[in-house]
Amino acid sequence: MPLWFELAALMVAAYGAGLGIGWALWGRKEQEED
Amino acid sequence: MAKASAMPIRPAIAIPVGALLTGASAYLLAEPWAPHFIDRLDSQAAQAIAGAGGSGVTARFANGVGSPSRHPLLSGGEKLDEDTRAKVARAVASIPGVGGVTWADGTARAESDEPVYQPLHCQEDVEGLLRTRSIRFEEASSALLPASRMLLDEVADALRPCLGSIIAITGHTDNQGTEPGNLALSMERARVVREALVRRGIPRDGLRASGVGSSQPVEGLSPSDPANRRIEFSVIRTEPLRPTPVDTPGAR
Lengths: 34, 252
Prior knowledge:
Chain A has 34 residues and is mainly α. Helix content of chain A is 91%, strand content 0%.
């Protein structure tokens, strides 16, 4: 597996995790307020 | 805070675009940095190979299309013995940053020092024997058919590596006749098989015979199907039996 692919997989996974955490912390609350 | 008056960004577009940008930035980040990293692994691998006595072995830190990879492909050293090859592969695999190590000729893979657990496979062997053939009896009787005697020879051979284990022999019947009769018949058939195995050199104390009548038909078959008349074997304990202190003879 090429090195760049491993790094890309890791970073995209972190991006997804960040989105999920961000949504759980702030996005959900905003949705409830709307 | 005032809400932005610009056109709202749709998450369905923004999220995949963000993922693509993240992937692209990973590529741009990795490409200039990879050669330095791979050079370092390369020189460390050469040292590790020399230290493990792998003369003639080379580690290639690239995949099939030549892209840098941290999973090296080892080649050369065909004349080395398997122990040395395993040692070389382990030495390379233990370098920090190195991923899985494979040999180009595929004869050996890097293995850890931990002992490999090799389970006894007599259960699978017996199941393999009984997949296409079964131990059959004369109708409404516990007398073995002649063909089943030959099959029992093979079953006994397959069970031999598991001597010292507890082997359960379970008799089953179809649902023809009364249940108490079926139960007795299934028990009697399991007992006949146990005795047949004892005659073939399997110790009696490791064998447990039981019958369940027609209560456990083969999955997917109707209880009346004759294929439910069968004997099942299961190896239920694979460690050798040790005598209890009471059974152990004293010093005198």
